[in-house]
Amino acid sequence: MEMSVRVGFVSLGCPKNQVDTERMMYSLKKDGFELVQDAALADVAVINTCGFIQSAKQEAIETILEFVQLKKEGRIKCIVCTGCLVQRYKDEILSEIPELDAVADLGSQADLAEIINNALDALQNDAAANCRLYDADKYLLPLEGGRILSTQPFYAYLKIAEGCSNRCTYCAIPDIRGSYRSRPIENILEEARSLADKGVTELVVVAQDTSRYGEDLYGENMLCRLLKELCAIDGFKWIRTLYLYPERITDELIDLIASEDKLVKYLDVPIQHCNEQILKRMNRRGSRESLTELFTKIRQRIPDVTLRTTVMTGFPGETLEQFEELSEFVNQMEFDRLGCFAYSAEEGTPAAEFDAQVDEEEKQRRSDIIMEQQMFISGRLNERAVGKVIETVVEGYDRYAECCFGRSAADAPEIDGKIFFTSDKKLTVGDYVSVKIDDVIDGDLFGSRV
User: Fold this and answer.
1) Is the pLDDT of residue 8 over 60?
2) What is the pLDDT of residues 139-185, one digit of tens each?
3) CATH fold of 389-449, please?
4) Euclidean distance between the first and the last CA atom of the chain, given in angstroms as a whole number
5) Among candidates 269, 318, 330, 337, which has minimal Cα distance to 297?
6) What is the CATH number of domain 6-138?
7) Residue 320 CA to chain centroid, in angstroms?
8) What angle do helix axes 288-301 and 251-259 make, rounded to 10 degrees?
9) Residues 32, 67 contacting (CB under 8 angstroms)
10) Which of the residue ranges 45-54, 151-160, 208-217, 355-364 would you say has the lowest mean pLDDT?
11) Percent of the chain residues past pLDDT 90, beyond the cut
């Protein structure tokens, strides 16, 4: 009997990419391939790349080269690359890394089984040098179908749309992924029910812009209706929505999050900046005044809300005064969670051609200042948690610290912080327990189960 081909995946980048990987895994298993957890121990390594900003591209290239070395050592037979980096630079990847056996863009992911079989056949016939490029329409990327979850078993991402139509001047996503396209609400709910049946209790709703959901498909915004329908599904305890654009956060959405128990009181609202001129150059809306008004309203209507945002420093034309305005705004708002990135000039985007580009060192210096500010803000906010009892989902046991660890509803998986705690009872991953916070050490909360 012929041995099945062992395939391992490496998924880089965002949760949306991870969902694509999970669909490919399901498709291959259905076609008779054996999936292995460690791609370095497989016959075939499939690398799903990210190509969003320079650091992500660098990570993808380094990962590919690591597997090229494994192939040279005879530890794996075949390497297939797909994802955003491939979509963006397929010809360059082909010419620069000839050791790859197949390069498949986003639209080709549906044909992965055939791509792998063709690559293995080529190897068997000593045609390994003829790296194959699979070039299909990006809009053929599968948005539905089964998945094999690669997250911990109690939580999963639910991708409700693909692509983006916002056309921020710094961002290549619309060119890579195509224009925004919502999935039909019935198909999303069917997938959500399937996840609940598998034991998922925390659902994380994602898209490039979740707050735009439904506008292209139904002619009106349908996010609130979708969230209400998701809340009606038995099994979910926490439903979290990521990537909400500030100008699309309506009073209806705020009130729904405030009133619906299953919707965690956590809003992820990337603002990028607060200065009106910089936002206009980014092709984004808003101003310091409108953002202040929005976040003040959210905090008034949703008690104990957790606000997360991302900002960017060193965008072309950003003056010291405009940076200082951003710095003041971050201090004023006291965001619970904040990520700051130095602007990355991405070729093919309008902003890369703008005048008044900021020096790399200066961009990073400004980013470091914002993150240092945020460290003090987070420290102050964490101190306020001492003495409180916080519901925590168990993620595992730390053998070195000899205690359990997990997250509260205020912490998104793989992004935010952890809670470490002792327990006199053996716990299982996915259990929800009450933890009394006793201390803060290096930004993490420590406590004991009560």
Assistant:
1) yes
2) 999 999 999 999 999 999 999 999 999 999 999 999 999 999 999 99
3) OB fold (Dihydrolipoamide Acetyltransferase, E2P) (2.40.50)
4) 55
5) 269
6) 3.40.50.12160
7) 31
8) 30
9) no
10) 45-54
11) 90
Higher pLDDT: 366 or 52? It is: 366
Confidence band of 1 (pLDDT split at 50, 70, 90): very low
Quick check: 226 and 188 in contact, CB under 8 A?
yes
**Per-residue three-class SS string for the chain:** CCCCCEEEEEECCCHHHHHHHHHHHHHHHHCCCEEECCHHHCCEEEEEECCCCHHHHHHHHHHHHHHHHHHHCCCCCEEEEEEHHHHHHHHHHHHHCCCCCEEECHHHHHHHHHHHHHHHHHHHCCCCCCCEEECCCHHHCCCCCCCCCCCCCCEEEEECEECCCCCCCCCCHHHHHCCCEECCHHHHHHHHHHHHHCCCCEEEEECCCHHHCCHHHHCCCCHHHHHHHHHCCCCCCEEEECCCCHHHCCHHHHHHHHHCCCECCEEECCCECCCHHHHHHCCCCCCHHHHHHHHHHHHHHCCCCEEEEEEEECCCCCCHHHHHHHHHHHHHHCCCEEEEEECCCCCCCHHHHCCCCCCHHHHHHHHHHHHHHHHHHHHHHHHHHCCCEEEEEEEEEECCCCEEEEEECCCCCCCCCCEEEECCCCCCCCCEEEEEEEEEECCEEEEEEC
Domain extents in the chain = 6-138, 155-384, 389-449
Intrachain domains 6-138 and 389-449 with the same fold: no
- CATH top-level class for 155-384? alpha beta
Q: Which two tokens stand for residue 167?
A: 């056309």
- What pTM, to 2 d.p., does this model score? 0.94
Could you read off the pLDDT of 238-295 as tens digits, one per residue? Answer: 999 999 999 999 999 999 999 999 999 999 999 999 999 999 999 999 999 999 999 9
CA dihedral sign, ordered 300, 301, 306, 307:
negative
